[in-house]
Amino acid sequence: MKACDSLIGSQVDKATGVDEMCAEMCGESSGEADAAGGGPEDPAADSVSVALAAGCAAGCAIAIDTYTVDAWGTDDVSTAICGYVGL
What we know:
Low-confidence stretches: none
């Protein structure tokens, strides 16, 4: 999903360090997904927000282990995380 890649990618670019990056990205992306989709009244946005909140930390750790930002870049990391959470 392009929106997921974009939201996650923007957070990857902002953070430094793997633990900090995952914590910041997962927390902010979940809230931003809900807001971008029309807020708490939008069931689709709520679903994306819940999926990010539930699976993002695990997906982030796997993505960092598999696709490092230094070797592959932000786009591959974002795609891996979004794929892990099913978005």
